[in-house]
Amino acid sequence: MPATVVYAISIMLLAASAFSVAGCGSANTVSGDVRFHRDVDLPDGATVTVLLLDTSLADASAFELGRDVINDAERLPARFSIQYDPGDVDGRAEITLQARVEVGDDLLYINDTVHPVLTGGNPRNSDVQVISVSEFDQCVEPLRGQIYSSFWEGDLPDDAVLEIRLWDVSEPEERLLVVEAKFEDPGSFPIEFELPFEGVAISRHHRYELQADIWFDDELQFHIPNPDWRRTVLPHCPDGDDQSIVNDVFPASEFPAE
Predict the structure, then answer these.
(1) For the CA atoms of 82, 84, 88, 91, what is the dihedral angle to 10 degrees?
(2) Among residues 100, 27, 91, which one has the least CA distance to residue 54?
(3) If you average pLDDT over residues 4-23, what whole number do you get?
(4) Cβ–Cβ contacts within 10 Å for residue 84, how many?
């Protein structure tokens, strides 16, 4: 084989090898998604910061191995990719990911669980789950629910109206109306409903009561008479089609309000 041909082939092989190395740059990166428990739009100017840290020493500050900063992030999940120097990684060390979402000086989301990577049999790449640090997390899904009763069979009268009120009762002396809605001709039990589509601001730290009244023939016919029966536990933010509120109503004539 002529020397010029051998030389050309060698050049091609070297080029292919160089391309292959460049294409494998991910060998020195850690990537994944920063996720909330549901998809969420971020406010204008939001920044997502993800750190790759050596957190081996409990009594010392974590050593930063790399970071990715996503400016003007529009929503979660947000994709990140962190480059690092493999020479900085001790195989016996604990390497973890940390994420936070901020607008200016305001912290919106942060991870509250450990996400180990690279060492100790952990994967190279990992998503980072974050939680909201705000007391109130504005839900983007409607708050859904169902009302049952074992005291009525078949359809309710055509003039029946279901009235729903959700109260914040964290301060017994100052009950706050969170949201209310009215549903005409609700059909039959169980009655499915959803509160305003724009979302309901609820808090994991507060207590709530669900008031459900059904009127027909110009009279209150069904309600939830006992205050303890009106108590309801809400998720911090309901997801999709999950039923978030379930409660029973009772005939007002047999179960007067307490």
Answers:
(1) 60
(2) 91
(3) 44
(4) 17
> What's the start-to-end Cα distance of the chain, in Å?
102
- Measured CA distances, 90 to 85, 87, 136, 158, 183 (Å): 11, 8, 41, 72, 63
- Give me the helices (H) in 24-81, please: none
Tell me which residue of 194, 162, 198, 195 sits closest to 179, measured CA to CA. Answer: 195
Q: Would you say the pTM of this structure is higher than 0.85?
A: no
Contact 49, 78 (CB under 8 A): no
Q: Distance between CA 244 and CA 234 in Å, rounded? A: 7
Opening angle at CA 173, ends 170 and 179, nearest 5: 55
**Edge-to-edge strands, sheet with 128-129:** 78-83, 29-35, 128-129
Type of residue numbered 221: Q
Q: Nearest-CA neighbor of 194 among 138, 135, 248, 140?
A: 140
Q: What are phi and psi of 114, to 5 degrees?
A: -85, 135
Considering only residues 194 and 67, tell me which one the structure prediction assigns the higher pLDDT. 67
**pLDDT per residue over 21-77, tens digit each?**
333 445 799 999 999 877 888 888 999 999 999 998 877 788 999 999 999 999 999
